[in-house]
Inverse folding.
């Protein structure tokens, strides 16, 4: 007998299931349509959150969180049985559509969640089925990019932007982000991360050397920081020379303005980068900070 699996409630799972003998059941539009309809019917029948999915020719991926009172094994059994019946009915067959039992891994933290989210998005791209995640219509990336509600659970005001950047990461971003921080972003967010795209766009608009030195608080600055030192960079020559101010935590009012070498700053142990800017008008001054490692989906896990 198969060992009974126990699943936690109110927890995200990465679920994958393959077809019998890896037959390309979902290779054509009809096969994928059958699976899409089945997933939508499952959403109507059971209570669960589906934040991402992808239907590949031989398997499916789901990023799913069953609600309290709803069991993952019940949902998956219904999805596999219903899709198999629909497939056999349309094709006039009695074949086994699905292979062995599905795989399900509990996601224990936000880093795992973001990694799986990005992994599912990249599946059709890695297989050569699409040029970018949102081009593959049988996926959560397509539904969120097109703002199609009902099947995928996402906030329309926080639609994921699948901005296709050059791969590998644009040299400008590789040049500016400390290596450890860049490696972290690539591992858990991928080349299409909003943070990388935002950084790439804003750094391109930074003033060149000599343009802003008379202004004490420029609208845009790069903030490199450690536990003891802050570097606020105002100007950049696009290569290695930067200009800004240095502020030490033990002497916060003792600020030094000078040119710096980007290569030297990046070599400092444990240094990180934030992107900050001030938005001004006649009535107020508002300061906003955008962190390269910001997590907009943290709330999906609760406390």
């Amino acid at each position: 007998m198969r060992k009974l699996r126990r699943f936690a409630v109110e927890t995200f799972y990465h679920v994958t299931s393959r077809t019998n003998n890896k037959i390309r059941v979902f290779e054509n539009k009809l096969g994928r349509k059958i699976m899409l309809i089945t997933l939508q019917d499952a959403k109507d029948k059971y209570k669960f959150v589906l934040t991402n999915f992808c239907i590949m020719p031989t398997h499916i991926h789901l990023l799913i969180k069953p609600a309290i009172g709803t069991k993952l094994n019940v949902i998956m059994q219904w999805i596999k049985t219903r899709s198999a019946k629909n497939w056999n009915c349309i094709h006039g067959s009695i074949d086994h559509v699905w292979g062995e039992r599905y795989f399900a891994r509990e996601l224990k933290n936000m880093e795992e969640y973001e990694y799986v989210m990005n992994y599912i998005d990249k599946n059709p791209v890695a297989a050569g089925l699409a040029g970018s995640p949102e081009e593959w219509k049988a996926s959560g990336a397509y539904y969120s990019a097109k703002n199609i509600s009902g099947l995928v659970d996402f906030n329309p005001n926080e639609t994921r932007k699948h901005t296709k950047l050059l791969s590998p990461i644009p040299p400008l971003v590789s040049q500016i982000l400390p290596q450890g921080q860049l490696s972290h972003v690539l591992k858990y967010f991928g080349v299409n991360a909003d943070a990388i795209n935002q950084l790439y766009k804003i750094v391109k608009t930074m003033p060149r050397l000599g343009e802003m030195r008379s202004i004490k608080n420029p609208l845009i600055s790069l903030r490199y920081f450690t536990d003891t030192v802050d570097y606020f960079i105002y100007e950049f020559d696009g290569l290695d020379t930067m200009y800004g101010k240095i502020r030490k935590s033990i002497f916060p009012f003792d600020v030094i303005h000078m040119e710096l070498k980007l290569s030297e700053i990046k070599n400092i142990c444990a240094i990180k980068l934030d992107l900050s800017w001030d938005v001004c008008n006649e009535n107020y001054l508002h300061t906003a900070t955008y962190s390269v490692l910001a997590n907009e989906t943290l709330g999906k896990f609760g406390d």
